[in-house]
């Protein structure tokens, strides 16, 4: 086991022993027990010890883990002393132990010393620079001197031993000199806090992230003694403000230290720091207003404390909301400028899009600029799938930060190498949800219009091609036969009288040629509209499936139908059945046609191998779309194919 872990285990055992001692004295005298001290032991010392064990396991966190364990030890020894004093006053012999009471009277300063050392060595276990080497030793010496001075003070002990006589005689001169070190000690506490600022300015990105975590609560502990002095000056004694600042800072410190070392990227520290600074400054503002107004009111009304308190409270309440807005704006601008700039840019784009001055598709460029991430991409969700496309139609990865609108995921932000945290990207994603949805809808409409234009172009091309085919078929077939027929008839006319031509045979050939031409014309016409539809759709479909080499279950209802609807329905069924016979290896086909709710519904299902695909550019889709209908194909592998078409058909 490394030496650091062995030392940490020893510290943990000492903390456990002191907590047990505090619990024992509390149990022995519960009526007068120091519950605050016991609560501090359980809320600070115990968690700090456990977290120090985790932190010290990391090579870069060994020194910090040891200092966290030392902080737990100092809190535990204060708790043990306070509970012992309560027991001593109730059941013990205070005179016998007066010397120990005097020696430990100022041991709480060691908590601040341990915290100062933690600030000084955080986050990598090294001093900010060699010039700071004297600070740890000076801090320990000043704290020890302050405790020694407290042992020789001639002021009464604190309750519950206020009547206990001081065990030591008059204060020696050297102790009087030592007492002067109290103010350098306060200066050293502040210097430890300042060291974090210097380390932040010269540290790398990781150290800055870690320092931000400790800064959320770390400033409060060094400020505790200064707040105590301020309260004594203003109110004549230490009040609840300094106590609240110290307790909150101590309770939170082990947690933020552990997060900073173990999981510094787990949350958005900038947002948390801005929130802590905002409410800290607002609290200071309210206290200042309260103290100033209540003091002035007390002087005006002649010392009526109740009136002063009431006026001070009212003034603080009036200042709260406007003060909160101003402080939040200024803190965000200075501690989290990236967030403020990003949200302001999104809001500005939203306003300009609403007024028609800019396009929502500019969102990606705006975010790239304001978040300082040239590679950032904005993806818009494709309807009916989990895929994402950017504004120009290129695919975007799905594993980015979601963009939400009313809890629905409409897009995704995919950062590249920008400085924005995941939490900031989530906040930006939520703020730009409306813009992303607008772009997505515009892209969807543009794609739909493009598909409509393509479909119309394909239909025109199909019409042109059909006319060319008809022209070719007529020219090569029926037209040639009719020309030949005309030539034969002219020949028969010229030689009718001289008998040199077999007119009867020529007329027979002409009649046969005319029959062939009529048959070819019928075949060409059948390509435009099947002649079997003359007897209705049901008869045409029955004729279509009559000669198929597999079982067909047919249920057709809906006649009479408009000619265009019947023709399109026939072609839908014909193509689906042909594909089932040729490609699906089916043994059974179900054909159902029904007229319902102003639509003609065609469904063709087979038991083939499945895996069929109906291209969006197929002639069948275009033919159905031309009538305002729709086609859907379901063809899972190994489970057959089902083609469903719906054609508008007014009753």
Automatic annotation (TrEMBL):
Domain spans labelled Signal transduction histidine kinase subgroup 3 dimerisation and phosphoacceptor: 466-533
Gene Ontology CC: membrane
Domain annotation Histidine kinase/HSP90-like ATPase: ranges: 568-649
Claim: Phosphoprotein is one of the keywords in the record: yes
Top EC class, one word: transferase
EC number: 2.7.13.3
Keyword terms: ATP-binding, Kinase, Membrane, Nucleotide-binding, Phosphoprotein, Transferase, Transmembrane, Transmembrane helix, Two-component regulatory system
Keyword ATP-binding attached: yes
Catalytic activity, reaction form: ATP + protein L-histidine = ADP + protein N-phospho-L-histidine
Membrane-crossing segments per the record: 34-56, 63-80, 100-122, 134-152, 172-199, 211-234, 240-262, 274-301, 307-327
Record GO terms (molecular function): ATP binding; phosphorelay sensor kinase activity; protein dimerization activity
Coiled-coil region: none
Protein name, per record: histidine kinase
UniProt lineage: Bacteria, Bacillati, Actinomycetota, Actinomycetes, Propionibacteriales
């Amino acid at each position: 086991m490394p030496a650091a872990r062995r030392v940490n285990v020893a510290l943990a055992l000492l903390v456990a022993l002191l907590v047990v001692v505090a619990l024992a004295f509390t149990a022995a005298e519960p009526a007068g027990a120091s519950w605050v001290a016991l609560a501090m032991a359980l809320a600070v010392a115990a968690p700090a010890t456990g977290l120090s064990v985790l932190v010290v396991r990391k090579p870069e966190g060994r020194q910090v883990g040891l200092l966290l364990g030392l902080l737990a030890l100092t809190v535990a020894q204060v708790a043990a002393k306070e509970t012992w004093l309560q027991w001593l006053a109730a059941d013990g012999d205070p005179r016998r132990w007066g010397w120990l009471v005097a020696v430990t009277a100022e041991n709480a300063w060691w908590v601040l010393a341990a915290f100062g050392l933690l600030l000084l060595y955080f986050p990598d276990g090294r001093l900010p620079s060699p010039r700071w080497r004297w600070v740890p030793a000076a801090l320990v010496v000043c704290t020890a001197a302050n405790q020694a001075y407290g042992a020789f003070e001639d002021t009464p002990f604190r309750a519950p031993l206020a009547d206990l006589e001081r065990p030591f005689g008059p204060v020696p001169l050297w102790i009087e000199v030592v007492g002067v070190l109290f103010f350098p000690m306060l200066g050293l506490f502040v210097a430890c806090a300042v060291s974090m600022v210097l380390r932040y300015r010269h540290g790398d990105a990781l150290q800055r992230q870690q320092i931000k975590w400790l800064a959320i609560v770390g400033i409060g502990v060094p400020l505790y003694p200064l707040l105590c002095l301020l309260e004594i000056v203003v109110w004549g004694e230490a009040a609840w403000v300094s106590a609240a600042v110290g307790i909150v800072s101590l309770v939170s410190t082990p947690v933020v230290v552990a997060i900073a070392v173990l999981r510094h990227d787990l949350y958005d520290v900038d947002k948390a720091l801005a929130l802590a600074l905002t409410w800290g400054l607002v609290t200071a503002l309210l206290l200042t207003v309260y103290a100033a107004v209540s003091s002035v009111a007390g002087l005006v009304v002649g010392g009526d404390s109740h009136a002063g308190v009431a006026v001070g409270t009212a003034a603080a309440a009036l200042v709260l909301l406007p003060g909160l807005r101003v402080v939040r704006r200024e803190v965000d601008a200075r501690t989290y400028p990236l967030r403020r700039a990003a949200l302001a840019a999104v809001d500005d784009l939203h306003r300009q899009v609403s007024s028609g001055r800019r396009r929502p598709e500019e969102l990606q460029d705006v975010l790239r600029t304001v978040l300082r991430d040239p590679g950032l991409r904005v993806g818009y969700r494709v309807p009916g799938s989990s895929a994402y496309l950017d504004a120009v139609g290129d695919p975007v990865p799905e594993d980015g930060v979601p963009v939400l609108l009313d809890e629905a995921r409409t897009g995704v932000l995919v950062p590249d190498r920008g400085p924005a945290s995941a939490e900031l990207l989530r906040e930006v994603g939520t703020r730009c949800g409306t813009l992303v949805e607008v772009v997505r809808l515009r892209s969807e409409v543009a794609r739909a219009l493009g598909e409509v234009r393509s479909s119309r172009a394909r239909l025109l091309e199909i019409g042109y091609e059909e006319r060319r085919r008809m022209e070719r078929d007529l020219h090569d077939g029926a037209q040639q036969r009719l020309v030949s027929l005309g030539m034969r008839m002219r020949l028969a006319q010229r030689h009718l009288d001289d008998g040199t031509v077999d007119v009867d045979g020529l007329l027979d050939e002409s009649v046969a040629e005319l029959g062939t031409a009529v048959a070819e014309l019928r075949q060409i016409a059948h390509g435009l509209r099947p002649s079997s539809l003359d007897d209705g759709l049901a008869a045409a479909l029955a004729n279509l499936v009559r000669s198929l080499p597999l079982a067909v279950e047919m249920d057709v209802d809906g006649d009479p139908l408009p000619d265009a609807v019947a023709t399109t329905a026939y072609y839908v069924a014909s193509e689906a059945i042909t594909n089932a016979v040729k490609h699906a290896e089916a043994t059974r086909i179900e054909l159902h046609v029904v007229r319902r709710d102003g639509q003609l519904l065609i469904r063709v299902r087979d038991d083939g191998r499945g895996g069929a695909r109906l291209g969006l550019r197929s002639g069948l889709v275009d033919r159905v779309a031309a009538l305002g209908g729709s086609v859907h194909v379901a063809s899972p592998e190994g489970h057959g194919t089902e083609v469903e078409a719906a054609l508008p058909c007014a009753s």
